[in-house]
Amino acid sequence: MLRTKDILDEKDPRVRAKNTDVDFPLNDEYKDIIPEMLKHLRYSQIEKLSKKYDLRPGMGLAAPQLGINKNFFVVCYEVKDGVFDDYILINPKVISYSEEMIYAGEGCLSVNREVEGIVPRHARITVEAYDLDGNKRKYRVREDLAIAFQHELDHLNGILFVDYIDPKDPYKNADLYREI
Predict the structure, then answer these.
(1) What is the pTM of this model?
(2) Which of 57, 66, 76, 119 sits at a 20 to 30 Å CA gap from 4?
(3) Is residue 161 a contact partner of residue 106, using CB atoms and an 8 Å limit?
(4) Catalytic annotation, pick one of 36, 114, 152, 179
(5) What does the pLDDT look like over 28-71, one tens digit per residue?
(6) Biggest distance spanned by C-alpha atoms of the chain
(7) Is the distance from CB of 70 to CB of 30 less than 8 angstroms?
(8) Is 116 known to be catalytic?
């Protein structure tokens, strides 16, 4: 099982490296790691398991955070108490996004410090990506799930949420966006 120590810290250059698309069929390394990424996220969101395995709660995880500089990420979204939807996005591309901008408090499993401030995100986003079998999928997501997708898409471009926050004015322009 993936543990907290397996997730790279923001200081590791691989987190900011250029990433490349994944070839299909998937190799065994990616076939094995993707379910482990989802398991880690699910366990991190279940309090009993989070404490047992000493996991920080997380909703998404991108390959570069594990030192794999390839374009894929996963999101494990709790739909209701104890019920999760899993998303696997390989070679994702943004198709469209809303003009409406939102924000919520963000954190990151690679940022091991408290960071206050806002990160403007699109309220809705449509992304095309491939699944484990190489089938093209389209995802239209909104609100907190849209934030998670955009956060993970940023990882694939070597961008961390902290890059968007003005250290001198962390809540700069908050009045221009809707808080969720």
Answers:
(1) 0.96
(2) 119
(3) yes
(4) 152
(5) 999 999 999 999 999 999 999 999 999 999 999 999 999 999 99
(6) 47
(7) yes
(8) no
